[in-house]
Specification:
Number of helices: 7
Helix content: 10-25%
Order of helices and strands: HEHHEEEEEEEEEEHHHH
Structural class: alpha+beta
């Protein structure tokens, strides 16, 4: 009899006990700005496509970009890629929506006015037709694998992948997201694939920290305004003709980075590429003077807009601070 009771009791627990993969993601998260600070904070330089496995088409389109394009009326409220939050220094908010029975119907990643909300459906609904409407946040489904929520995003509009440099994503782009929370830290890994603009998956991993005292991070309304007076009523759209982008060789001029590395070829993403450059690369003699702050953690900008908070310089190949508090490269 006791054995039967135990069996029945165990069966009941199997029904009423939530699955192990029920990690709570709800909350407001702040980006940890000590991690990949330049990309997450002030943003990369024009002509810096390092770390992006671009196709020839993707590279050509990115080189047509100018920094004042987003300031034109027709582009001021255009959402960027659903994965652009990996490159943004803004608060991210996650909440859940329930069905009538109280089960989690969807998780929502919101709080960023530069992209649409990512609504992650958890009810197993089928993915729409490839001809279905594409929206700013795309169409997402999720499934738990242990403590990690794995998400598949499709049906997003064509949009810039990484803010500030014009790297494009087509409306056939797909993003796989892995969200893993440990204590108050949330690690999000995005794997973006695009048959038109990427030669292989583009992988980004970032960490966010739960902050109960942070603002809600609710999405703000976007209002257009005249940001470029010289273009008022002209009908002109800022652009470069092919081959005429003056920033195409910026990384070469400033940091001696080989042009093929700056232009986003897949080969440059792998450690083996360092061996190829070992005997030919020469660090710039005065990196700080060429691009203030970029070479050493933005340490002189601490306390100023865009400054890296609570960081000290650890450049490995630079000398101690000079008389003006600037670091200069050594011959090593």
């Amino acid at each position: 009899m006791n054995r039967r009771v135990a069996i029945v009791f165990g069966a009941v627990l199997a029904v009423v006990t939530p699955a192990a993969a029920q990690t709570e993601l709800t909350g407001t998260y702040l980006p940890l700005m000590h991690e990949d600070y330049i990309e997450r904070g002030p943003g990369s330089f024009l002509g810096d496509f390092t770390g992006m496995p671009l196709t020839d088409e993707g590279r050509a389109k990115a080189l047509l970009y100018t920094s004042n394009q987003p300031s034109t009326y027709e582009r001021q409220c255009v959402a960027q890629s659903p994965g652009v939050f990996q490159y943004r220094p803004v608060v991210m908010r996650i909440w859940k929506e329930f069905d009538p029975e109280g089960r989690v119907l969807a998780w929502v990643i919101g709080g960023d006015y530069l992209r649409g909300d990512i609504r992650i459906w958890m009810d197993g609904r089928p993915r729409p037709s490839v001809n279905a409407q594409h929206v700013d946040g795309g169409f997402s489904t999720g499934v738990w694998a242990g403590d990690t929520l794995t998400v598949r995003v499709t049906h997003a509009k064509t949009a810039w992948i990484r803010r500030g440099v014009g790297i494009p994503g087509s409306d056939f782009t797909t993003i796989t997201m892995h969200l893993t929370r440990r204590a108050d830290l949330l690690t999000i890994t995005t794997i973006q694939e695009d048959p038109y603009y990427l030669t292989e998956p583009h992988v980004v991993s970032r960490v966010f920290q739960l902050n109960p005292r942070a603002t809600d991070g609710t999405r703000q309304a976007c209002n257009t305004a005249n940001e470029i007076p010289t273009l008022e009523d002209t009908g002109d759209v800022p652009h470069y003709f092919p081959g005429r982008n003056p920033e195409e060789d910026f990384m070469v001029r400033t940091f001696n980075v080989p042009k093929e590395a700056a232009m986003g070829y897949a080969e440059t993403l792998y450690p083996e590429y360092r061996k190829k450059l070992k005997d030919v690369y020469a660090p710039p003699a005065a990196c700080w003077d060429r691009a203030p702050g970029y070479c050493c953690g933005w340490i002189e900008r601490q306390g100023l807009p865009g400054g890296a908070p609570n960081l000290t310089c650890n450049d490995g190949g630079f000398a101690e601070l000079g008389p003006r508090g600037r670091r200069r490269a050594t011959d090593r």
